[in-house]
Design brief:
- The complex is a heterodimer.
- By secondary structure, chain A is an alpha+beta fold.
- Chain A is about 40% helix and about 20% strand.
- Helices cover about 50% and strands about 25% of the residues of chain B.
- By secondary structure, chain B is an alpha+beta fold.
- In chain B, helix 3 packs across helix 4.
């Protein structure tokens, strides 16, 4: 029997091994994106979770520190400071508005001429602003009156304003000397600002003893405010009157 | 036919976006708020509470540095309450020290707090312009003496350990070279502020 296997005109291929081609794996951009997204998301979740825990702990610590700081505030200490502060301010306010009557009287002494007599003096303090003085003055002539007015008007800044009123001229018979005496009386209203009145208390404390003052005299027997005398030493009893000049208002 | 892997990748993207929207973004917002709160608490602690406490400590140390003697003088200058008997006794001692003849003295009373000026009795007494001023008390004193004795009296009144302000004075001539003086004196007592919880720092 003929071999039919070779009768075909189609060439036969020998039993050679078919070489298998290498498999190529295709990686798509979308695949990369999706993986990157999922892993970064998971990473972000973890990071955010731990960071939020950390930040909340930090907030709790801050709250605790704030509470501790608030609790360390002492209300009683603050009240003590405030009380001292107010007391010091009030004392300072009175000290700064204190005015010496002695200074006012000495200013008046400087402004009074020799030929006049002050018969009476009224003085009123108007708040912490000024002293209103009303002096009943007697002199011998209108010339003296005009001269006195000029001296008072030139007494600035101590004497702020001067107003003379109730001017009277009287002639009286002096029986002893058998002569006629002429007197001119008037009322002088003077204002003295407190700001220009120095307080002598502090200076006097340093001096220990007041200095004697001599003032020009009027010969008249009528008591006047400018009579001659020396200020006496206050003596040992002044121990109880201590000055407060050492209070330091700048401390607080 | 769509491969199975593509579905998985799409699902991963969707899940990622969902996680970001539902957890990561709100948590970030929350973290921002917490950080703001931390900033507020920290500034409160450091800038406000801390400053107050530091100032208070400084003030307390200053307060403690004031000597006992100065504090005693301050309290004597502005006492909690006016002891009218003690003040009148002091007035008599002052008149004796000045060498004037004591005639009369009396405690008129405390002047009602009011804004501006207020008159009581014969004299105008200035009262505190503000509520945070010391409370004034008025006294009257009548003496006789020479001019320089009166000046000495005023000098001693000014040197007193508490204020004795002359708010009204009337001097008239008497016989024998003497002068008669009637005066209205004002002294003060400490008055705690009515409503003031603030402390000014300069």
């Amino acid at each position: 029997m003929p071999d039919l296997s070779n009768s075909s005109f189609i060439p036969k291929q020998g039993p050679t091994k078919k070489r298998r081609g290498q498999a190529t794996r295709q990686v798509y951009v979308f695949t990369i994106i999706s993986y990157v997204m999922i892993f970064s998301t998971l990473l972000a979740v973890g990071g955010v979770y731990f960071y939020s825990e950390y930040i909340e702990r930090q907030r709790d610590n801050e709250i605790a520190a704030l509470d501790a700081a608030i609790n360390s505030y002492s209300e009683s200490d603050m009240q003590k400071v405030l009380e001292f502060d107010h007391r010091l301010n009030q004392a300072s306010s009175r000290l700064s508005n204190s005015a010496s009557i002695v200074s006012v009287l000495e200013s008046l002494e400087d402004a009074v001429i020799e030929t006049v007599q002050i018969e009476s003096l009224e003085m009123t303090r108007q708040g912490d602003e000024l002293f209103d003085l009303s002096a009943k003055i007697k002199t011998d002539s209108f010339d003296s009156t005009m001269f006195q007015r000029g001296v008072l008007q030139r007494g600035k800044p101590t004497i702020e304003t001067v107003v003379l009123s109730d001017l009277h001229r009287q002639t009286v018979n002096n029986e002893e000397s058998a002569t006629k005496e002429t007197t001119v009386s008037f009322l002088a209203k003077i204002t003295v600002p407190l700001s220009v009145v120095p307080n002598l208390a502090g200076a006097s404390v340093a001096e220990e003893t007041p200095q004697p003052i001599t003032i020009t005299v009027d010969d008249s027997e009528t008591p006047t405010l400018n009579a001659v005398e020396e200020i006496k030493d206050p003596g040992d009893e002044t121990v109880i009157y201590e000055a407060t000049a050492s209070i330091n208002s700048d401390d607080i | 036919m769509i491969p199975k892997g593509l579905f998985t990748q799409i699902a991963m993207v969707i899940v990622s976006v969902a996680i970001i929207i539902t957890y990561v973004k709100p948590t970030f917002t929350q973290i921002g708020e917490v950080q703001d709160e931390i900033g507020v608490y920290r500034s409160e602690r450091e800038d406000k509470v801390g400053v107050v406490i530091d100032k208070l400590e400084v003030l307390i140390s200053k307060l403690n540095s004031v000597s006992v003697e100065d504090e005693r003088r301050l309290r004597a200058y502005l006492p909690e309450k006016i002891d009218d008997i003690a003040v009148l006794r002091d007035l008599i001692l002052i008149t004796e020290a000045a060498g004037v003849e004591y005639i009369d003295s009396s405690y008129v009373g405390n002047v009602t707090q009011d804004r501006g000026r207020q008159s009581r009795g014969a004299s105008n007494v200035t009262v505190s312009e503000s509520l945070n001023q010391p409370k004034p008390h008025q006294l009257s004193l009548s003496v006789e003496g020479t001019y320089n004795q009166l000046k000495n009296l005023f000098l001693l009144l000014e040197k007193n350990k508490y204020p004795l302000e002359v708010h009204a004075l009337s001097i008239s001539a008497k016989e024998g070279g003497f002068l008669s003086a009637t005066m209205s004196l004002v002294t003060y007592e400490y008055q705690a502020p009515i409503t003031d919880n603030t402390l000014s720092y300069e």
